[in-house]
Amino acid sequence: MKIVMFSAQPYDERSFDEVLQRDYASRGFELVYQKAALSAQTVALAQGGEAVCAFVNDQLDAAVLETLHGYGVRAILLRCAGFNHIDLEAARSLGLFVARVPAYSPEAVAEHTIALILTLNRHTHRAYNRVREGNFMLDGLLGFNLHGKTVGLIGTGQIGLATARILKGFGCRVLGHDPYRTAEFAALGDYVELDVLLAESDVVSLHCPLSEATWHLIDAARLARIKRGAMLVNTSRGALIDTHAVIAALKSRRLSALAIDVYEQESQLFFHDRSSDIIDDDVFTRLMTFPNVIVTGHQGFFTAEALREIAETTLRNLDCYASGRACGNALAGDG
Ligand SMILES: NC(=O)c1ccc[n+]([C@@H]2O[C@H](COP(=O)([O-])OP(=O)(O)OC[C@H]3O[C@@H](n4cnc5c(N)ncnc54)[C@H](O)[C@@H]3O)[C@@H](O)[C@H]2O)c1
User: Fold this and answer.
1) If you measure from the C-alpha of residue 228 to the centroid of ligand 1, how many angstroms do you get, rounded to a whole number?
2) Both 161 and 94 in a single domain?
3) Is residue 202 part of a domain?
4) What pTM was estimated for this model as a whole?
5) What is the pLDDT of residues 137-169, one digit of tens each?
6) 2: domain range?
7) D-isomer specific 2-hydroxyacid dehydrogenase catalytic domain: from which residue to which, for each copy (predicted)?
8) Domain check: are 183 and 240 in the same one?
9) Do 243 and 271 belong together in one domain?
C-alpha cells in the first residue's frame, strides 16, 4: 500500500523509515515523502496513494478531501494531536478512515512552555546576544522569582497537566480552567472560572484545542480582564488568540510579555526557511519588533522521544486500517 506523506521534513523521513523497517518490513507499506504542504494546489501529488499522512498545517477541507477520495485515497493519517484542520464531517460522509496521534509526548510541549516562560522572564534571549557582543550590563534583564507566582492554565488535559506538575516543582500556585475537570489536576491546582484565572494569574498559558468555541478565546475583551502586567504563553494553536488584540495589549503594557510557539497565519512561515525572503505578514513582523516577545516555529513537540512516538503511533494506526482492526485513535471511519 502506498502512503503519501505531505509536509515531510528530513527528520520525519528518518523517524518513519526507522519504525517502518523495524516493525513493518513485511507489511508492504510504501511511504512516499512530499515536502509540499497539502492544499488544493498540491493535492495531485497524492495520486496513486491509498493513504495520506498529514501534519498540522496541511489543508484537509471538504474540497481537498473530495479530490483525495476521487484519487482513491481512503485513509487520512494525522501525525499530530490537534484535528482542527480537517473537516471531519466531510471525511465521514466520504467514508474516509481518519486517525490521529492523541498524545505523543505531553512533556515535550510542557517543557517547551516552561522554557518559554523562563526565557521571557529572565530575558535569556537578550542576555545571550549581549554577552556575545561584549555587553555585560544587566539593565533591562530584570526578572521575577517564579516561586510563589500564580500560573493559570487554560486547558488541563495531558499537556496542561504535565505543565502543572512542573510548575508545582517551581513552587507556583497553579490555577486551571477546563470544562472537563480531572482529579489529577485538582491534586495539583485549583479549578476556577476563566475570569478569575485571567484576573489572578501572573502567567497565563493556553493548553486547550482550537475549535469554534475556542477561536480567539483571548480577544480584546478577555485581555481587558487579564491581570495588568501578566505574561501570555500560547503553545497550543495560533487562532486561540486574536493577535491584533494581543499587540494592542503589549503596546498598552497590559501584557508584560508574550511567548508563542504557534501563530494564526503560521502555515505561510513555519517549517520553511524564509530567511532570504521579504516577509509580507505585517502582523508577524510587528510582533518581531517587541523585545518582550518570543516566537518559536511550532517546535513544542520537537523532541526525539516525541518523533519516535509519532512515527510508531501513526504506523500502528495505518496497520489497524490496513488489517481492518479497530483503532482506538480513529476520528472517523473506524470499523
Ligand atoms: N506546540 C506544539 O508542538 C503542540 C504539540 C501538541 C499539541 N499541541 C496543542 O496542544 C493542545 C492540547 O493538547 P493536549 O494533548 O493537552 O490535549 P487534551 O485533549 O489532552 O487536553 C485539552 C484540554 O482542553 C480542554 N478544553 C476544551 N475546551 C476548553 C475551553 N474552552 N477552555 C478550557 N479548556 C478547554 C479539554 O477539556 C481538555 O481537557 C492540542 O489541542 C494542540 O492544539 C501543540
Assistant:
1) 25
2) no
3) yes
4) 0.93
5) 999 999 999 999 999 999 999 999 999 999 999
6) 1-102+302-330
7) 4-330
8) yes
9) yes
Distance (Å) from CA 179 to ligand 1 centroid: 12
CA distance 86 to 130: 44
Mutation pick for ligand 1 pocket among 100, 159, 205, 211 (CB with most ligand atoms within 8 Å): 159
Q: How far is the CA of 30 from the centre of ligand 1 (A)?
A: 32
Determine the pLDDT at residue 82. 87
- pLDDT, average across residues 14-29: 96
Which cell numbers hold the place of 165?
506538575
Which residues have C-beta atoms less than 6 Å from ligand 1? Answer: 81-82, 103, 106, 109, 154-160, 177-180, 207-210, 213-214, 235-237, 261-262, 298, 300-301
Instruction: Give the three-state DSSP class for 170.
Output: coil
**Could you tell me if residue 93 is inside a domain?**
yes
Q: Which residue's CA is the closest to the ligand 1 atom numbered 8? A: 236
**Domain match, 76 and 168 both:** no
Catalogue the active-site residues: 237, 266
- In this predicted structure, what is the pLDDT of residue 103? 86
CA of 55 to the centre of ligand 1 (A): 16
- Residue 12: which residues within 8 A CB-CB, separation 6 or more? 5, 33, 55, 79, 307, 311
